[in-house]
Each structure stands twice: as structure tokens, then as C-alpha cells.
Amino acid sequence: MTTPRSRPNMATLVLVPVWGVVLAAYVGTMLWTAQISFTASRLLPVNEYVGFDQYERLFASARWLVSIQNIAIFGFLFIVGCLVIGFVLAVALDQKIRFENTLRTIFLYPYAMSFIVTGLIWQWLMNPGLGIQKAVRDWGFESFRFDWAVDREMALYAVVLAGLWQASGLVMALMLAGLRGIDQELWKATRIDGIPAWRVYLSIVVPILRPIIITAVVLLAISVVKSYDLVVALTNGGPGIATEVPAKFIMDHLFTRQNIGLATAAATVMMITVAAVLAPWLYMEYFRRQRAGGAA
Amino acid sequence: MKAFIAAALAGSALALASVPALAQEPAKAEVMHWWTSGGEAAAIKVFADAYAKAGGVWIDNATALGENARAAAINRMVGGNPPTAAQFNTGKQFDDLVAQKLVRPIDELAEEEGWKDVMSPFLVEAASRDGQLYALPINVHGQNWLFYSKPVFEAAGLTEPPTSWAEFIPALQKIKEAGYIPLSLGGQPWQERVLFNVILLADGGKDLYLKVYQDRDLDAIQSDEFRAIVETYGKLRGLVDPGSPGRNWNDATNLVLTGKAGAQVMGDWAKGEFINAGQKPDTDYGCVIGLDDETLMVGGDVFVFPAVTDEAQLAAQDLLARTMLAPETQVAFNLAKGSMPVRTDVDTSAFDACAQKGIALLKDPESQVPVFDILLSAGLVGSLDDVITQFWNNPAATPDQFVEGFVSAFEQDS
Fold first, then answer.
1. Cβ–Cβ < 8 Å for B346, B355
2. Residue B401 CB: number of other CB atoms within 10 A?
3. Long-range contacts, stretch A78-81, CB < 8 angstroms, 24+ apart
């Protein structure tokens, strides 16, 4: 019945509903969001167009500028920190040590928790009234200070710390899987050549792990962009506006501040930023290499 | 599977067939609200019981957190499947709904029952748009209370708080020297705002407060008087404990009632915590309104009735509104909620010493101001919160930056 010629048509036909859903649910809502950002909408979407007014207000808002700055600092420290800690942990676990399974479970365990729980735990730990600071002071070290969650200068780093604690285990698990996939012959060969182990890791192992590192960066970058729950649970954007992030700005303006126009403008800026950063990078990573014929 | 589908179809057919019969059945009211904590749940039960007694059927639809409950109610109203009634705060939260004609005006009902004669004029105004009553106020909360711990004040050698904030600061210093937390503050933007507004009203008086928030008078914001208030506010930064940022209001109240902190500025809902802990006003804790007991900052909750055409639903709404404002329901409800009745003609002898002070001020329209979210849009409230919290949390911030931030927030709000 089925001739080879009709097969592609059949496949296209079967995919039509999927394309419909993709266009309506993903592209459609994105365009709708962008469209609302050009209106004067407040509590409800209205069709009164005001041009770029919402964007002007957005970039005049100190809180939005602080949010962007925060997400840049948080994103950089979080991604680099997770990669470094995860890699070091994976290398350590790969040394055929005892209790490896137990340690692996412990390191991966935080990732099984929601960001809300992580945030709450670290809020307690870093609160001067009930956390680590109080415990150490009660032991007699009166001048001990660990109050990052309530310190305006340090609160953002408190968020980074909690994020690292949460996500480093995931990177470790990914990297460990990669390390286990490396041929033992390679290690023998480098040992015969007398190359120091750190050199092998840096010059040979890391390049082999490249696809895994990319996967880790993508996963971590996604949690950076949508970072909301961690901040809400840990500092709720405070003290002051010291730890505000764009996602929280958008949620606040959508729900409590009844300003859909401004919120969608912020959402559109975020989407464009992510697209502008990701597009050239994805192109470099996948398409260029495929064309060069060197696809993994 | 087939049997299941058949059963489901039969079930829905039955449901459809029984629709006309509803008209003769008792009035059914689905009420959306966000009262989920212990005292709040007890309060809403007063309404539910009263409604059942009046012959209606109460369908409870509670959602935790005001913003979630409001978002859910708004979604259903826009989607054409509105509840019978939905809770909002007095203020501008339902402006857009009124503008889109999604809310039913209840003037006729209010006229019939004579509500406007027994309600404080500010409440009627806060619930009206263009001279029409669109919402039903059901309780009044005072927001400018100072609760203080009697034992802590005694230990610091104080009897009562002085009557102005400028004089109150040295008193707080004494509490600090005695080894207690002087001012228990939850460092969340809305609580920092409550504190600022309380100082503005107490030291600047009703005039300045209304000039700023009602008339949006930018000259008043740039005046020396306003700047002095900002300075007073800034001085309080040294009088809270380091654990303040991010703390919930009830945890802050807890510090006062356990004798760790001297005083807290909060709305009268904090009284519920003292009552729960078994403490008595005037013996265990004291309460003053804005330090001088002169002007009450009032807000409260309202119910709006979505615009419907169904006769049965209209009747259910009427019955619901009448039940909620019946004098005995008002007293029972507000005793449970810790708020004050909206009717000035009910017997208030059952309320405690603190509430009596508020009720006395509520009788005279001259001694009230609306809370500032009644006067300003949610967006502007948010922008002002940003300014206040940035100033409070940055010891290097100057009153000039505060004033500048206020002015530009007002200017941007078209």
C-alpha cells in the first residue's frame, strides 16, 4: 500500500497537529506577550497602543536595572562555580575511593530538593538570629559573623552559595558519567609517557568531556534565567532590592502590581536577550561543526 | 470502558436535567476569599453559618494569599464563569473590573437597607466608582497601631511611649541600652512602608499625609517637613535588630509578646497574636494609635459581586450582602477577625480596650485617613515601596534621594 513516494507526505500530515500546537502554544503566546508590551495594559490586557512607553519606563526603573545586574553576576558565578565544583568532585570520586556510592548520593541529594526548600534552609542557616552565626556565638566565639542573607552587600552571594549547594551535584553526576566513559588505555598511555595527571585532565579529559560540559551549561543557564523560587524563599529580593531578579520583577508586576504592560515588556526583553545570547552560540556549537563534517 | 462512558453520559444528562429545578432550591452562593489562617477561617465561618441560617447554601472557595485569590477570581470573571462574590481589599484593586463592566453596582440594595447612613463616608467612597457603590465593605482595619510590651518598657524605665516620633527615638535608645530589641520590624517592603506611613501621619499630621497621597502634591514632598520625617525614619534603622530583613510580621509580633523586643508598628491584625498567646491589653501589652491616639489609618476588606444576569444568582448575591451586613453578623465576624465593624450603629461593648480606641475614632470622619493603597494604584504603591525599601536598607542613602525617588514615582504614574 505505502509507496516510498507517499511516505514523506504522510509524515508531514501526521506532524501537522504538532506544528499547530507549537505555533499556537509557543510562538503564538510569545507574540501575544510582545504585543501586550506595546499597550497601556494594567490589570487586564487592553488594546490601547502606547508604542515604546513601557520599555522606557522599564529602563528608567532602578529595580529593573539592579535585577539585570544581579542576574549577570549570579549567572556567571553560579555556572562557573557549579562547573568547577562539579568537575573537582567528579575527579575525586573517580579515584576508585571507598564509599563512592554513598558520597555520590550525598552530593547529588540537594538536587532532588526544590529550590524553595533550599532557599528556606539557607535562610535559616544564614539568619543571624537563629542560624550558624547564633550557634557559633553561643559556643563562645562572640565576634563570629555569618549573616549573608540579611547583609545588603552579601545577600546576592548568599543566593549564589545556596545555588551552588543545590546544583553542583548534578554537574558532578554528569561529569562522572563522562569520566567513566574514557578509555582506560588512554590513562595507561599517558602514564607511560610520564605526563602529570593534572595535565591529562586539563588537556585531554576536558576536551573529551566537551559535550557533557555543554549539556551542563545549558541546564545551568536555564535555571539562571528562571531563577525565582530560590530568591523568593531565601531573601524575597531583599534586603531592599539587593537580590531582585528579572523573573521576580515580572511576577510582581503581573500579579501584585497589576501592571501587565510593564511585566510583558520585561518578559520580552528577557526573551530577546536569551535569544541573542543563545542563537550565535548554538549555531557555533552545532551547525558549524556539522557542516565541517566533524559532528560527534 | 464503554460502561464508564455510558455512566458518565447518563450522569451529565442528569445534571443538565436538574438545572431548571435549581430555581426553586435555596440560593447558592460561591464565595472566593483568602482567609485561610486560624482566626480568619473562624471569621469566614461566621458568614457561612449566618448565610445558612438565612436559608442559603454557602459554597466556600478559599485560596491562600490575597494575590492568588484575586488572580483566580479575576480570571473567572473575565472568562465568563464568575463566582457569586469575591473578596478584595478596599482600594483600586478592582478599578479595571469596574471599567470593563464586570462588577455589579449595589446602590439599590444599599439604599433599601440604609447602609450609607451607618457607614463611615470614607468607606462608602472607597467602595464607589463614579458615585456608584460597586463593593460591599465588611470590616475595618486600623493600620497605624503601635503595640508595646509592658514588661520591656518597665525594665527600661518607661511608662508609656511619648506622643511624637522625634521624642520616641530617645525612649527607644533607652530600651536598647537595657538590652532589648527596641523596635521589632519585619524587614519586608510592605512592613517598612507601614512604618514610614505611620511616622508620616503622626509627625506630619493628616494634612501632609493627604497632600502627599491624595493630592499628589509634589511641593509637599519636597518640603522641609517631609524631609524631616524621612530623617526620623532613617534614624530608626539603628533601632531594629540585625535579623529584621525578610522577617514575617507575626514573627516580629512574637518578639514583642515574648518580651524580647519593646514595640512593633503594625495593623490591628497583630492583636490576634496577642489574643492567641493569652495576653491582655493594658496589663501585658499596650496599644496606641500612631503614638498620639488622634488619627486612625483605615482600610479593610470588601466583597464585589460580579455582574450576572441569572435571576437565581442575583437573588443569592442580594441575600449574601444582606447577611454579611446584618448587625449581629458584623459583631460576631469582626470579633473573630480582630477588626472593627463597618456599621457605626452596632453594639460594640464586646470588643477589647484596644479596639474601643479605634471604634471611638471611627465614629468621627475627621479623625480618619484612608490607608494609602486606597488612594493609589497598585503599580504606584509598588514603585513607592521600592523607594522606601531602598532607603531603609541602605544606611548611606540620603533623605534627598528618598524625596527624589518619591517625586519621580509620582511623575511616572500617569
1. no
2. 15
3. A78/A160, A78/A163, A78/A164, A78/A167, A78/A220, A78/A223, A78/A224, A79/A217, A79/A220, A79/A221, A79/A224, A81/A160, A81/A164, A81/A168
The continuous run of DSSP H or E covering B57 comes out as: strand B57-62
Type of residue found at A272: I
Amino acid at A183: D
For residue B169 the three cell numbers come to 527615638
Cell of B301: 476588606
Which bin fits B368, alpha (ψ -120 to 50), beta or left (φ > 0)?
beta
Q: Cα–Cα distance between A32 and A13 in angstroms, integer?
A: 27
CB distance B286 to B153 below 8 Å = yes
- Rounded CA-CA distance B334/B325 in Å is 11
R_g over Cα of chain A: 24
Beta bridge partners of B132: B129
How far away is chain A from the Cα of B122, in angstroms, using its nearest Cα? 24
Q: A67 burial class (0-12, 13-18, 19+ CB within 10 angstroms)?
A: buried
Mean pLDDT to the nearest integer, A107-124: 87
Residue B281 DSSP one-character state? B
Q: Which three cell numbers stand for residue B4?
A: 464508564
Question: Residue A5: is its pLDDT beyond 80?
Answer: no
One-letter amino acid identity for B9? L
pLDDT in tens, A41-81: 888 888 889 999 999 999 988 899 999 999 999 999 999 99
In this structure, of B4-8, B52-56, B57-61, the range with the lowest mean pLDDT score is B4-8
Separation between Cα atoms, residue B242 and residue B251, nearest integer Å = 14
**Residue B346: left if φ>0, alpha if ψ -120 to 50, beta else—which one?**
beta
Q: Are B177 and B183 in contact (CB under 8 A)?
A: no
**Cis peptide preceding B395, ω within 30 of 0:** no
Query: B75-120, pLDDT tens digit by residue?
Result: 899 888 999 999 998 888 888 889 888 999 999 899 998 998 888 8
CA B72 to chain CA centroid, Å, is: 20
Test mutation, A258, A259, A260, chain B, max B CBs within 10 A = A258
The model's confidence at residue B25, banded by pLDDT at 50, 70 and 90, is low
Q: Closest chain A residue to B190 measured between Cα atoms?
A: A240
Grid coordinates representing A165? Answer: 549547594
Residue by residue, DSSP assigns A197-242 as HHHHIIIIIHHHTHHHHHHHHHHHHHHHHT--HHHHHHTTT-STTT
Q: What are phi and psi of B129, to 5 degrees?
A: -130, 125
**Virtual torsion, Cα B241, B245, B250, B256, nearest 10 deg:** 10
Q: What is the DSSP letter of B26?
A: P
Q: Supply the DSSP string of B147-190, one letter for each residue.
A: EEEHHHHHHTT-SS--SSHHHHHHHHHHHHHTTSEEE---BSHH
Numbered residues of chain A with Cβ closer than 8 Å to any chain B Cβ: 42-44, 57, 60-63, 123, 127-130, 147, 149-150, 152, 235-236, 238-242, 252-253, 255-259, 262
Of B71, B97, B379, the CB nearest to A259: B379
Identity of residue B413: D
C-alpha cell at A187: 590513562
- Number of neighbouring beta carbons within 10 Å of residue B412: 14
CA pair distance B257, B273, nearest whole angstrom: 8
SS3 B4: helix
Average pLDDT in chain B: 87
Are A264 and A44 within 8 A, CB to CB?
A: no
Which H, E and C letters describe B199-229, residue by residue?
A: HHHHHHHHHHHHHHHCCCCHHHHCCHHHHHH
How far apart, in whole angstroms, are the C-alpha atoms of residue B370 and residue B212? 12
